TrEMBL record:
Domain of life: Bacteria
Protein name: ABC-type transport auxiliary lipoprotein component domain-containing protein
Signal peptide: 1-20
Domain ABC-type transport auxiliary lipoprotein component: 35-196
InterPro entries named in the record: ABC_trans_aux (IPR005586)
Alphabetical keyword list: Signal
Length: 207
């Protein structure tokens, strides 16, 4: 290769590298769309507020779920994330926050708090979040949101388990577009929160 050709090759490579860097910088500076999930409409308990104090722990979750990114699984062994969008908080923290709000809205408890903010109650609600993703196999026309969590209701005075239950909700998205996937997450989450709240309120000594 002649010196002239070598120089041209180097200049071309440098130019392409510069363009790639500019493109990456532009994509990095593009603001992410941030999404929040809502609590369901909950019927309040009778006017007399319950005497039980409840503490909601942050559910434990794997590293792939304990993130602000919105997970989508093309297969059972694959975990990817929707580009350009994220949740307002990590999935476990969002679920904890939404549960505190929903359980408070029932009016069935003397108080509903969270840890690790120093709250202490009669019961603690401990959870393990195992699914919080959209599933989109290659042969599917759209994505389906799947939420799965196991909760234990634990007595604070002796750490004994009062009740345990597994919850699972699926909700199809109208399309694979991020907005429709997030809307399916919102519907699924409201359904999940309603089921968990009904279960907690009707446990022994809780209403």
């Amino acid at each position: 290769m002649t010196l002239k050709a070598l120089c041209l090759t180097a200049l071309t490579a440098a130019s392409l590298s510069g363009c790639a860097a500019i493109t990456s910088l532009s994509e990095a500076s593009r603001p992410l769309e941030i999404y929040e999930l809502r609590t369901p409409e909950i019927a309040q308990a009778p006017a007399r507020r319950g005497a039980v104090e409840l503490v909601v722990e942050e559910p434990i979750a794997s590293g792939s779920l304990a993130t602000e990114r919105i997970m989508i699984r093309p297969g059972p062994l694959q975990a990817q994330y929707l580009p350009g969008v994220r949740w307002s908080d990590t999935a476990p923290v969002m679920l904890q926050t939404l549960l505190v709000r929903t359980l408070t809205q029932t009016g069935a408890f003397a108080s509903v708090g969270r840890r690790p903010l120093g709250s202490h109650g009669d019961y603690a609600l401990l959870g393990e979040l195992t699914d919080f993703q959209a599933e989109a196999p290659a042969d599917a026309e759209t994505a389906t949101v799947r939420l799965r969590v196991v909760f234990r209701l634990v007595r604070e005075d002796d750490a004994s388990v009062a009740a345990t239950r597994s919850f699972e909700v699926t909700e199809p998205a109208a399309s694979p577009e991020p907005e429709d996937v997030v809307a399916a997450f919102d519907r699924a989450t409201q359904h999940l929160l309603s089921e968990i709240t009904d279960w907690v309120v009707t446990r022994r000594g809780l209403g």
